[in-house]
Design brief:
single chain, Outer Surface Protein A, domain 3, three-stranded antiparallel β-sheet, about 35% strand, elongated
Length: about 180
């Protein structure tokens, strides 16, 4: 059995789950998320927990079993706590500023500022000019928006300038002269 797939998902107080025709909808204090369930995976709701079953031990079913459980768990965590990704900006003159909760203006060394609009359900915070926090209830979308912002100016390996995740280590290269 899949260790991830057979672990039950606990439903905290205030979270409601509806399962209709191969679609699961999770509603909580922060919002509502919905997702389609693979046809082979079964979901049972009992005593404030969700359990996931698979019909047999075929490779495809084993993969879908753990994946479905993880996705539903992320939905439950998202509607209760939410998700956030922190980015830091490194470079002289590189900075970010929030224009409302849904727009972000980045100066990253280009001849023009880069404007980033948040998709629905995503908010930006700028606690310092060199820090950006992307937050929302859908883990997948939060991660994708953070990756899109990082891809505007990826950290370069010589001086380390660019946008990186909080705590990300950049492997540095020696310059042309090969200083030792």
């Amino acid at each position: 059995m899949s260790r991830i797939g057979k672990a039950p998902v606990a439903l905290p107080a205030g979270v409601e789950v509806k399962i209709d025709d191969r679609r699961i909808t999770v509603t909580g204090p922060k919002g509502t998320l919905s997702r389609a369930i693979p046809g082979e995976i079964g979901i049972e709701q009992e005593d404030g927990t969700l359990r996931f079953t698979r019909p047999n031990d075929e490779r495809h079913h084993r993969a879908q079993h753990g994946l479905t459980r993880s996705l539903v768990n992320n939905m439950v965590v998202g509607v209760t706590e939410g998700f956030r990704k922190e980015l830091e900006i490194v470079g002289v003159g590189y900075r970010a500023e929030a224009q409302g909760p849904t727009n972000l203006r980045l100066n990253l060394g280009y001849s023009h500022p880069v404007l980033v609009e948040a998709p629905e359900g995503i908010t930006f915070e700028v606690p310092a000019p060199t820090q950006v926090v992307v937050s929302g209830i859908d883990k997948e979308v939060v991660g994708q928006v953070a990756a899109d912002i990082r891809s505007i100016r990826k950290p370069e390996p010589y001086k380390g300038k660019g946008v990186r995740y909080q705590g990300e280590r950049i492997l540095r290269k020696a310059g042309k002269t090969g200083k030792k």
